[in-house]
Amino acid sequence: VLTNVIGTQMVANMCVAYGVELMVQISTDKAVNPSNVMGACKRLGEMVAQALGQSGVVTRFVTVRFGNVLGSTGSVVPLFQQQLARGGPLTVTHPDITRYFMTIREAVQLVIQAAALAVDSGFTQAAPVFVLDMGKPIRIADLAAQMIRLARLRPELDIKIAYSGLRAGEKMHEELFYDSEPCEQTKHEAIMLAQARRIDLDALENQLSTLYAHAKSRDREAMLAALRALVPEFIAA
After folding, report:
1. Residue 224: C-alpha distances to residues 42, 43, 212, 237 (Å)
2. Is the bond preceding 89 in cis, omega lying within 30 degrees of 0?
């Protein structure tokens, strides 16, 4: 909360105070109907950017939602590589769990292209949300099996795939958009645009002050209650 919500709010307010032309908010597909605190916090970061962007300030605010970035810190691919090097097993939480994936190059290009689209003279939407077309989500079990084959080994025979069960707050399938966000194609064939919902800046700032007080005092239950009030779609899995 202190980093992904209040930290984002502080940076956004400084952008406004010093007349920064554009701020790009990096979000995640986990912000859509979040099932854990991280996802709810990233959704609130989106709301901060959207509320400020819709308020008529000079700074333009853009949000980009990432899927899972291949090869990044905490990514499943480096984990599978480590497990392969140890002789397995490769651990997957559920046989049917899926995720959207993008490369580091695609992630960087999404940020740059979204910024360029937002400052285009013909673009009028305040506080847009951009998402890369990542195709169909991938079964993590299929990814594990493919990595075993790429190592010239046989899944289940040479290297086992072990299922550990879904963790607290882990979704079976991620989503890219809310139902209330009409989606359209942009000038860039691989980037989609979601229509951001209207958010009242004054009301949001008042609620964030309450959330900040609870987070700073480490009052976990009060903080979670404030988080759920701000993000009603947040339902812990």
Report:
1. 14, 14, 11, 14
2. yes
Instruction: Specify the amino acid at residue 47.
Output: M
Q: Report residue 182 as tokens.
A: 């009409």
Degrees, nearest 5: CA angle 9-15-16: 90
CA proximity to 127, closest of 26, 24, 21, 44: 24
Q: Residue 11: exposed, middle, or buried by beta-carbon count in 10 A (0-12, 13-18, 19+)? A: middle
Distance, CA of 36 to CA of 55 (rounded, Å): 29
Instruction: Report CA dihedral (171, 52, 3, 98) to the nearest 10 degrees.
Output: 20
For the record, the structure tokens of 158 come out as 């040479």
Neighbouring-strand partners of residue 24: 62
Active site residues: 30
Query: What Å distances lie between residue 68 and 65, 101, 104, 118, CA to CA?
Result: 10, 5, 10, 24
Contact 130, 110 (CB under 8 A): yes
Which tens digit of pLDDT belongs to each residue from 171-224?
Answer: 999 999 898 888 888 888 889 998 888 899 999 999 999 999 999 999 999 999
Name the phi and psi angles at 15, rounded to 5.
-60, -45
Question: Nearest-CA neighbor of 143 among 73, 65, 79?
Answer: 79
Single pTM value for the model: 0.89
Q: Mean pLDDT across the stretch 109-117? A: 92
Bridge partners of residue 90, in order along the sequence: 161
CB 97 within 8 A of CB 166: yes
191 vs 133: CA distance, rounded Å: 6
Side chain identity at 22, as an amino acid letter?
A: L
d(CA 117, CA 191): 10
